[in-house]
Design a protein that fits this description.
Length: 442
């Protein structure tokens, strides 16, 4: 397959850019990169996917998502009137996940994966919760990921909030899925040990998680997202959140610490010293009114920092736009975040993903995963490798994506999903969402 007739952003080490670029795909990998004329002449029998003069670039990566939140869109819960972040958690998300069935989890995953394809997202790290139906929930999401062809790293959030029995069941779901992924050996599906947050997990539960954790697998955990997480850690354990996680052996090069809103410089140094990854979720932080994290300081300290959505959207370019303006607004300085945020999205997310997935991601380069998307963006000013981020930021969004390829498989072409009855999936999703809303408000 050749994808060509478009402006090609490679994201390689030299930031190579082709005005009329093309990519030759063989199997699941990129075989050759060049001009459309060169590749079509050299490989005349290859299927040609026409970019129609648009932008060809690597598939996008979301390093923190919540598939289980999909059916909450438009949901109204009786009596829900939050005044703080704990009200949001208990009144919306914990109320929802306690009612989720396995079928509703599956439907949430199918709807999310369709949205990922339509927004050019080819890899996600998901953090799941469905305390109404724990056992088998990750396997339902995994089945959907296989069906829709999106590269996925999954985990279940362990929490003591609903009692020890469900906490143990959550640990077992993680352990079972980690074992499955290791035996399956597919580079399309990986696993982590999910934990909700410090303030809903005891030291005993941390120890049980560690007991079930292979040495090459890390944690995916919310860290100091709300101020209550910090207050709980200080009040109950006499230490700050990151310090407590370090004492419980949670930090490390395979661990994702999400949010990190209420952390100080000493904690940033702990993250750096342990090579722990951090994922910033700007829309979620703003929407939940938890504050703006010191993301630029974390980034500057050398902590591998990526960009996620926390379930707010599946449009990574939307997250890019919001992060760009959030930090300018927070710092009261118009010249910050120009370089850091695109590096988080286009470079660091791939580095985070490659701590789990074997095939190299994030570049259009020989030997890299054939995860490629095409946007219909037509630049009204000159575009090249040095200014392409400005074009992406101000000229593109997720829904400008017209073609999505993951692992060499065409998932969407010219905005038509391949082999998917989208109308039927959306109809079933609405049916399940109505049932879930009725169960919650019964």
């Amino acid at each position: 397959m050749i994808i060509g007739n478009g402006r090609l952003i490679t994201r390689d080490e030299n930031n190579s850019f082709f005005e009329d670029g093309a990519v030759l795909v063989k199997g699941e990998l990129i075989e050759e990169v060049g001009t459309t004329e060169e590749l079509r002449k050299a490989h005349p029998d290859e299927e040609f996917v026409d970019a129609h003069g648009g932008i060809i670039m690597p598939g996008l990566i979301n390093t923190h998502n919540h598939i289980y939140s999909a059916l909450a869109r438009g949901l109204s819960i009786n009596g829900y009137n939050p005044n703080n972040f704990l009200d949001v958690l208990d009144g919306m998300w914990w109320t929802l996940d306690r009612k989720l069935t396995l079928e509703e989890t599956r439907v949430s995953a199918e709807a999310t994966y369709i949205d990922c394809i339509k927004n050019g997202v080819t890899t996600i790290f998901d953090h799941h919760a469905s305390f109404g139906s724990i056992e088998g929930s990750l396997f339902e999401i995994a089945d959907a990921s296989k069906k829709y062809g999106i590269r996925s790293c999954l985990c279940y959030e362990v929490s003591d909030r609903d009692g020890k029995e469900k906490s143990l069941a959550s640990i077992k779901e993680n352990a079972d899925f980690i074992k499955y992924c290791k035996e399956n050996k597919s580079d399309m599906l990986k696993a982590m040990m999910g934990i909700h947050a410090s303030f809903t997990v005891s030291d005993e539960t941390f120890a049980m998680c560690k007991k079930e954790l292979p040495s090459d697998v890390g944690y995916h955990i919310h860290v100091a997202e709300g101020i209550d997480d910090l207050h709980h850690s200080l009040r109950t354990h006499g230490k700050r959140v990151v310090e407590r996680l370090m004492d419980n052996d949670v930090l490390g090069s395979k661990t994702i610490a999400v949010h990190c809103v209420h952390i100080n410089n000493a904690e940033i140094e702990m993250l750096k010293a342990t090579d722990t990854m951090v994922v910033h979720n700007p829309e979620s932080n703003m929407g939940n009114a938890v504050g703006c994290p010191p993301t630029l300081d974390i980034f500057k300290a050398g902590v591998l920092t990526g960009l996620g959505t926390d379930g707010y959207t599946n449009d990574m370019l939307e997250s890019y736009k919001v992060a760009n303006i959030l930090h300018k607004h927070n710092k009261c300085h118009p010249n910050v975040a120009w370089g850091e945020v695109p590096q988080m999205l286009f470079t660091n997310n791939a580095k985070i993903a490659n701590r789990y997935f074997d095939v190299p991601l994030g570049m259009i380069k020989k030997g890299y995963a054939a995860d490629i998307v095409v946007s219909d963006y037509n630049p009204l000013t000159p575009m090249n490798g040095s200014n392409c981020n400005g074009h992406v930021l101000f000229g593109m969004n997720g829904r400008s994506i017209i073609t999505t390829i993951c692992a060499g498989k065409l998932l969407m072409k010219d905005r038509e999903l391949i082999g998917v009855d989208e109308a039927a999936v959306m109809a079933h999703s609405r049916e399940m969402a109505s049932k879930l809303a009725s169960d919650i408000n019964a």
